[in-house]
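Appendix B.2, paired examples.
Example (i):
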Amino acid sequence: MYKLFLLKINLALTLLLLFVCANLKAQDNPIKQAFEFPTKEIYDLHVDKHGFLWIASDLGVARYDGINCVHFSNPRQISLGCTNLLEDNYGRIWFNNFNGQIFYIEHETVTLLESYKFNNERNFPRMVLFHDQLLATSDKGLFVLNTKNLTGTYISNNTYTSSLAVLKNQVLVHGDKVWYCYNEAAGLKKLSYAGDEEINGNVYLLTKNTYRDTVYMMVNPAGIVKKLMVLNDTLKQVDQIAFGRFINTISITPNNQWINTNDCSYSLKTGEKVQGYNLSAIVNDLEGNTWFSSLYYGLLIQYKKDIAGKTIIPELDNGDLVISIRNYKDKLLVGTQKGFLILYDPVSKNTVFKIKVSPTAGSINYIAAINADEYILASSVATYKINIPTKKVTELVNIKTVKQLCYDEKAIYIASTSGLFVIPHERSDRVNQQIMNAFGHVFKYSAIDNYFYLRLRCRTIAYFPNQASLFVSIKNSLFKIDKNGMKPFLFNNDQVYAASLVYLNNRLYIGTISNGMLVVEKDSVKRISVQNGLFSKSIFKIKPIDKNLWILGSGPLQLFNTQQKVLVDNYEFPDRSASQVFDLEGANQMIYLATSSGLENFPLVKNAGDKRLKNYLLYIKVNNKIVTKNSKLKLAYEENNVLFNIGIPAYLKARDIYIKYCLATKTDSTWLTTEPGERTIHFSSLMPGNYTFKAIAVDPRLGVADTMISYSFSIDRPWWGSTIFKIMLALLFLLIILYGYAIMLRKRMALKKAFDTQQQLILAERQRISSEMHDDIGSGVFTIQSLANKASKAGNASPEIDQIKNQVNELSAKIREVIWSTHVGNDNLEMLIYYIYAQIHQLFEYLEIKLVSEMPDDIPDLKITVQSRRTVYLLVKEIVHNAIKHSKATTIGLKMFTDEQALYISVYDNGIGINPDNQISKGSANGMGLGNIRSRIEKLNGHLSIENNNGAHINIKIPLNALRVSEFDKNLTKWQLFITKLLKIPAETQEGK
């Protein structure tokens, strides 16, 4: 039953509200529902110094900025219903609930005032602010709070106080039929009262605000308002008004005083009435709107009256609309939806003429002048030309539905649904040829009609003389036609989709479908976008009026100054949310708009200087938690998600306002924009560093806000990114490197020790082999050789004895070579060279060929390997052997010398020469063993060259590195020794230990 009763009550209230709103439709500036506030019972309103609207209702306190409604509460709040909204000198918002608790809102947080003991009070307090003090009524007398330091105290006067009123230099206090005045110096001072006595059964309450020196007091249920004044030490009643109804509140505004009864609100200044709303508060915001709080209908608003007025054309039929407008000699030439052309004088408000363009003509969608008195009219089905003075109308048969035209001294250029047309002003072969050449012979020519045409459906057109080009939008893609033919017009290498084209003041203006407006000059193209203050990305129409451009787009109306090349933001424009704008024109300092709700007009006047847009940084959230706005916020590394909430108190067109913002660093200061109506800006995963957040609100009508929001903050580097940590990490890394290096040295010295041990063993073994071969095998071979020699001297020696003798001699020579090669003392370059010269000289001892040899003067002390020593010896021996056997020379020369890098060997003769390309192995008729020679040289990474110049000249170059013994460094550096000592490497592994 209870729920059914509430449902009936809500239905009745809804019907009553619909009835009241229906009655208000006839008013020019009706009261409307503001927005969907969650309750219909509101007790108080307050507009703070920034322009935000504060709302106290049965659901608590909320703040509204035109878009966002933020509700505030405190966990210790024992009831939600609130009233008495106040704002102190420090920006705090004060209120109390009906259980007597007093709260204040600061930095987006609601705080309970502990010093006011609400549990000891019978009623909720009445509060006022007086200078830097908050005064509240109390059963103990008067509660006084210092708003600077938030310390409070009670002033006892042996009676309770029930209401307060603030005068210029004092506060009037009402108690139990007793009156006081209060100020900081004198405290409470009793006043005498000269007026009607208080009657039992009535409640007497002062209104907290006063009008000049007048104090207002409500008397309920009698429904009386008393006017009081303090004169010296006397409170005098100067007037009273009987309303006969229960008085909810009295609202004092700077220019008015409203008595709000449960039936009607009355203006004491103008006599105006607002009936049927059961209002509780009336306030004016900084834009000039009036806000009403109702106990039945919630939050209501009466917007500031729109500057636009209605233009009534007497001859316009009922239900007909003005679709197109042109200025003709300060009169309005208008085309209507029903196909009429009307010339209207806005000064005299009379119609000069009205004609039907054609019986079959549809709406006149476009009007354009082709000279002072002749105009083109484009209807929805045909195109006409009219002479205004004679009113003669001619249909252009072949041109259907003109969308736009322009002209120059040669021709008229028309974009239409039936094609693109160029109509010369005169029939002339010379002019025709000029047109053909100017546009690259793109057009076809009709000799009968004397025009050029291109059968492509066109939307808009403009001739740009600075580039001698015709710009035309075909299927929304923009093309440029000039002497080089027809090509797409590109911006930043992208196609341009144009909806409107205008040539004005040596510039071409392009209204695009989704890329703002482009301004084309002779050698440059500039984009006007949201960054420059343009509100609409999509531009439907650009209309030139008085050397300026009016922009109709997806957003509100805007004006572009073509001389300064900037958007103008200091003019007040009408509200365009309720109707569609078809066309606009200027005449007699007025702007006329053809809209779906009729022909409207408004004066082009600048905004007052005090109507600048305001913006404020309301709060900052870090990792989704609200933080206090310090002068400079210092955040930890993980606190890198930062959100800024911007408050912009604006109510007429709040959702059109956007924010330009920048998060500046040392290297980046790029400006970005929010979407219209957006009020939060979020940055996530910010890197460590210093930042400055800058933001400013932009209203398409009022321009940018009066102040720039600027807030600096920093994000610390993580502990692993600190300088100390980096130094410690570098030291640790260095220690690791040193330790690794020391380990490498340790292994190297151990390996060197093993290598040295192995080398000593190898050398000892070589020495043993050499000694045994010399002592044992050598002596045995020598004995055999001696016996063979003795046997061969015998007269009866057989031929085999001579063979044995020869074999033993050869074996003896080879054994000597092996002994030489294995002997440790021969492992150096000097011994090698001496040995080679000795062996070669011994080879020529019994030959008739002359040997010419040359020893080097300086031989480096170089330890060489056994293998390289033997290879070099056999290499030289084989070359000389080949020369002896095959060269047929009488002289053979041998020369060996060295430098810092290589060993050089030269063998030459005066014989028949050799063929260097013949690489047949030794033993061939002509090969001379070149294959073996090349193979040995390759093993030593050497180089062979053969020349024939009165004999063979063989030159060999062998790098010393190919001969040198590879061994560990003999000595460690001082640094290496220091590291081994530092890391306590065992001494026996160190060099020389």
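Example (ii):
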Amino acid sequence: MLRCLLLLLALIFSRPALAQLGSGPPNITPQLVVDGPVQPGSEVDLAILMTPAPGWHGYWLNPGDAGQPMSIEWQVPAGASVGELRYPVPQTLTIAGLMNYVYKGPYAILTRLRVPADASGLMPVRAQAQWLACTDQICVPERGELRLDVPVGGGSDERARFDEWRRKLPRPLGAAARFDGVGTAVRLGIPLPASVAVQEPHFFPAPGTDLGHAAPQRFLRKGDLLIAELTTKSPGDRIEGVLALGAGQGLTVAATPGSVPSGGTVIGAAGRNDWSALGWALLGALAGGLLLNLMPCVFPILALKALALARAGGDERHARRDALAYTAGAVVGTGALGIALLLIRAGGSAAGWAFQLQDPRTILVLLLLGTAITLNLLGVFKLPVLGGAANPRGGFATGALAAFVATPCAGPFMGAALGAALLLPAAGAIAVFAALGFGIALPFLAVAFVPALRRRLPRPGAWMVRLQRVLAIPMALSTGAALWLLWRQGGQAGLLLGLLAVALLALLLFLYGRSQRGERRWGWLVLGSTVAGALVLALLLPVPSGATRSLAGVRAWSEAKVTSAQAQRRPVFVYFTADWCLTCKVNEANAIDREAVTDAFRRAKVEVLAGDWTNGDPAITRFLEARGRAGVPLYLWYAPGRSEPEELPQVLTPAMLIARAQRP
């Protein structure tokens, strides 16, 4: 009733503007565009490109509290047909307390055009359309005839433009959502892997879903479940709509009544007002950083700094200056890693803490650092940054080094704190990462600023040398772990290069240590050779490709690769996945990425190809549409000698895949 009243008022007060419609251009200009070239008997995408004038906006299929969606009547030749309209993810616009779902810039509404098999020449496509164009003050109902002569058997290539428009369409979630509630409050549980970044979520209800448009929405994360707390008058037996994830990306959601768990971590705009979540994340990061000092990769560095402080004789001014520099280095180090992680996730990649360890070149750097620190602890050479006199530059470098070598370690409290950080706004997330560095530096900071603790430091003596030798053991174990990880990522070539790098570094540092104890003229030459050798080996190190890593030997999907494998009469297994598809991830973990399946595929020389639809890859979208599929997962098995694939069920088992690999 309210919407009808608002539309009536809009018509009354917009009469002056309506009178000008016939004499001037529309405020939103429509245009029909077809994705050519067009072949007889095919289906192609048809776009209604809507271009609002500056200051004007159009409406989604559910306009919200006020507005009107586009209505259209098609006239096409016999045998041709036009499908349903597919809208891009909208934006919210609140005016005078009314929430509208709008498009403020150019947007394309897509549909599917079926071309008759006997079509030829120019096929006329006509449509009578009506739409509402509004500013923040007035609304103007507009109408017009859309005309396009589709060139059958030809036409310009519009793939680039259509690919961009397809990316803005919401993608099917492909998993069952549930909702429950009491009174007007409803909780909507949406299966969504925890690794999927959700920036500014909003749930846009589809027509027929009675939600309070202007009511606040609250979103929480609980493992692989995204929970939306919404307001409704009557939820009915089904809730449908589009979940906006941010940056113009979204998922279509259909939910039925069911149990939704309570609790979770608040995210999105509501999370910015939840200071308790940020406070707990900061405390968790502080505690996690503090406990990291007991880990084998960090403890030797902290102990060396304490030894350096003991050697300094307890000079208060030097101790405090060095402690502040060490703290600044640790905070800047973890903060910089946090910023890099947020930038990577903002680019669409699902990365977590220690993301840099996915690159074997970083592992090589850690391996060389661990080797150098171990040799330093054994007395092969002296590294002034770790064991020398207190100075700001050395303290800052040591703090940054401690932050860097801490990344392979995972201590208590860290997982929950850093997981919460990735769900907070950028400023809060960076603060949590900085708190981790502050926790790493806290023991040394306490010793420097609390005289009672500093007085308890033992006097310098021979015990320091013995302690350094003992500290070399955990550091050597951390170095061995880095070598193992290098072998896992780089294979035998990575392992051999790592061993060569360790041997070369040990030799050069041995020579450098001799130069420190005698002639110093060639010490810098040795250090320069060490750095140059490390750079050369890093360049030679094999780097894994960015393809999906869930299965050994997997390659990124393309139709050309399928054709090439079929020409070699090899079986082909193709799976289409997405980071936000929980069903996909369960199948990959339970059925695809299994040792028995990998062995069977290797024996049968199966070509495994993965199509990642996380960001709406247009080539995958076209392929799915050609097979009549709207979303993922999709699993295809191409048997040798057969052009048409077998479509496998959406729930896979290892036995199902092994049986197909063993077919003659």
